[in-house]
Amino acid sequence: MNAIRSLLVFTWMVVTIIPLGLALVISSPFLDDKKLWWWFAVPWLRGSIEAARVVGGVKYRLHGEENFPSADDMRRTILCPKHQSTWETFFFPSMTSHQLAYVFKKELLRIPVFGWSIGRLGMIHIDRSNRAEAWNKVAEQGKILMDRGKWIIMFPEGTRTNRGAKGAYKTGATRLAVATGAYVIPIAVASGRCWPARSFWFIPGTIDVSIGQPVSAEGREPEELMDEVERWIESEMRRLDPEAYA
Questions:
Q1: pLDDT tens by residue, 65-111
Q2: In degrees to the nearest 10, what's the CA dihedral of 219, 188, 210, 218?
Q3: Which residues pair with 205 in a beta bridge?
Q4: Domains of the chain and any CATH numbers
Q5: What are the start-end ranges of the E strands in 181-245?
Q6: Phi and psi dihedrals of 58, rounded to 5?
Q7: pTM above 0.85?
């Protein structure tokens, strides 16, 4: 039954992204990325989360939502979520009051329709093989995008980790925060219990998402700031999903 539910959800995603993604690409010469975001990207992402909830049985529970800045708060903000599955990459854009800009590897731009779409949404795509150039691009574009009211979202572990595991927390997000005077928001996400990393099958259940308090990067060092982010996230993960860390 879980396999059938999962197949139905992924079929819906594929079938709907083709016309909506093509409409976004075709409209991109005439609309700014803000309108493309709210008119095309967000409705599809919300629909995917709802399809996973209604058909796949993947519900979610949000803690600490009051820690997100309000819609009219223009402070520079960087989200740093735990990364256990694809679910959170869909979830955060579907529920935040600000447009998000992901930092992602440029190879994703080659994916038909999906890659073409994200390439037109004012995000930051980097060449991971050239770290110095990648960092310069993140620092330069990150400041510009945040000053336009966007939030930057970067997964500190870089890639998805298995449930109950911890990847190496890299300082890219806190380096950007220190360089731009941004606030960092740590986020714990127990998505591995319902959508395991590198899996196409859902496990019905509830994903807990916990939003930490914004931390100012003013006067901080990137390493010690990321240490604080890591400690909060990993401690909160053990509270949200204790059986995974038994």
A1: 999 999 999 999 999 999 999 999 999 999 999 999 999 989 999 99
A2: 10
A3: 58
A4: 2-245 (3.40.1130)
A5: 183-189, 205-211, 215-216
A6: -95, 95
A7: yes
